[in-house]
Amino acid sequence: MTTLRICAITGGAGALGSALAAHLVARGYRVALLDTDRSQERLRAIVEKLGKDNAIGVTGDFATTDAWTRALASTQKALGALPTHAALIAGGYAGGAPIHEATDDAVYERMMTSNVDTAYHALRALLPGMVAKNAGSIVVIGSRAAERPWTSAGAAAYGASKAAVVAMAEAASAEVLEHGVRVNAILPSTMDTPANRASMPKADPSRWVSLESASSVIAFLLSDDARDVSGAALPVYGRA
Asked: Closest Cα partner for 23 from 193, 218, 184?
């Protein structure tokens, strides 16, 4: 009997989230795609493409406990079980200004909410069920900025938020290791997404990290092939 593998993907309507979903479904996973309310139509299209037996889309504010409670119930009902795996992709980049030039806290608060709070509430919602079953694997999306914070000069809030996410993942990995649950992070540089191509039209995207490459690295960390890897923060830099 094949073990049921269900992966929750936050930011599931985004470029990386949807690419990872297709990658995992092709390898026998079912996926729960979680994203904001404004992504409802995009999620519906992705689920239709992947097949309703393989995927579910759930919208909400995943920086809150209530949204996770609803998402887990919906996932169990639609896909037959709670998530056994997760990729925490939700987050963003808002630029900003040097701290000494900031005129308000809007960018800082946005970065902490979209990057840190979403990861914290995801771990808080997902880990208890995995610990109870003594099995599970989670991959958190950090950033190269977590290891090279000076590259976020002018966007310090972003760099700080991603460093916090990686530190949280590393600490959580130690907390659950003896329960058979693994938590790892990847640290991508610039991703080759339509949004990045539009915002940096003069850049060479062949130097960036492709969605296929990032999906393959995440899938490896989620899989049993990485059963002896936990607490890692893996650079995925491409040539950027």
From this structure: 218
In a 3-state reduction of DSSP, which class is residue 11? coil
Strands 55-59 and 30-35 come out as parallel
Q: For 97, list phi and psi in degrees, rounded to 5.
A: -145, 160
Q: Is residue 20 included in any domain, yes or no?
A: yes
CATH number, domain at 60? 3.40.50.720
197 within a domain of the structure (yes/no)? yes
Q: Is residue 1 part of a domain?
A: no
- Domain containing 78 equals 6-236
Number of domains in the chain: 1
pLDDT tens, the chain, 240 aa long: 458 999 999 999 999 999 999 999 999 999 999 999 999 999 999 999 999 999 999 999 999 999 999 999 999 999 999 999 999 999 999 888 999 999 999 999 999 999 999 999 999 999 999 999 999 999 999 999 999 999 999 999 999 999 999 999 999 999 999 999 999 999 999 999 999 999 999 999 999 999 999 999 999 999 999 999 999 999 999 998
Domain annotation covers residue 219: yes
Cα separation values, 206 from 141, 203, 209, 229, Å: 21, 9, 8, 29
Task: Note if the pTM is more than 0.85.
Answer: yes
- Describe the crossing of helices 156-176 and 118-133 by its angle, rounded to 10 degrees: 10
